[in-house]
Amino acid sequence: DYLQRRLVHPAQRIRQQADQLEGLHRRLRLAQGSGLQQAQWRWQTSSQRLRRLRPDVAQRCERLAVSTRHLNSAMTVYLARQDARLLALHQHVQYLDPQQVLARGYSVVRDAAGQVVSSSAAIAVGDNLQLIFAQGGAMVAVRKIHEAP
């Protein structure tokens, strides 16, 4: 009986081996498919990582060109404003130029020591004063002093 159980008909043995071979074949295909899927997944993740790390040069060039145009435009406006401001300051300085002040009818009065006289309290009757006009000057003697109101 024991030997009978061990004896297997050759057709049955072939069927068992065919089933076993089919199972191995199925496992091999799954292993190959799984390995291929893993390789594809690794390739996709590496490709995505590379795309994130590698900048889009054309897009960055376009952004740089747009930024450059904006900067040039802003600088043009800024420089025009600064130019207008500089012109206004220049005109103001010209207005305050001592020679221009003298040309408007003012004069500079100096005492005998050459100091500018800005108050009648700084002079006395008989003092010699130098008057400076826009064109020329004069030497005068004080005859009378009028006190400030």
Report on the structure:
This protein is mostly helical and 149 residues long. The protein folds into 3 domains: 1-54; 56-96; 105-141, no CATH class. The protein has 4 helices and 3 strands; from the N terminus they run H-H-H-H-E-E-E. It has a 3-stranded antiparallel β-sheet, with no helix packed on it. The longest helix is centred in the first third of the chain and has 44 residues, at 10-53. The mean pLDDT is 90.
> What would you call the shape?
rod-shaped
Strand portion: 5-15%
> What is the overall pLDDT average?
90
Compute the gyration radius: what is it? 53 Å
Low-pLDDT runs: none
What distance separates the N and C termini?
A: 152 Å
**Overall tally of structural domains:** 3
Tally of strands: 3
Q: Note the run of SSEs as H and E.
A: HHHHEEE
Largest sheet: 3 strands, antiparallel
In helices, the fraction of residues equals 55-70%
Task: Walk across the major sheet and give the strand order.
Answer: 1-2-3
**Helix- and strand-based class?**
mainly alpha
Give the quaternary arrangement of the chains: single chain
How many H/I helical runs?
4
What can be said about this structure in brief?
This protein has 149 residues and is mainly alpha-helical. The chain has 3 domains: 1-54; 56-96; 105-141, no CATH class.
Write the topology of this structure.
Blueprint: H1 2-6, H2 10-53, H3 57-96, H4 98-103, E1 108-110, E2 128-132, E3 137-141
Antiparallel strand pairs: 1-2, 2-3
Output the keywords.
3 domains, single chain, 9% strand, 64% helix, 149 residues, mainly alpha, rod-shaped, three-stranded antiparallel sheet
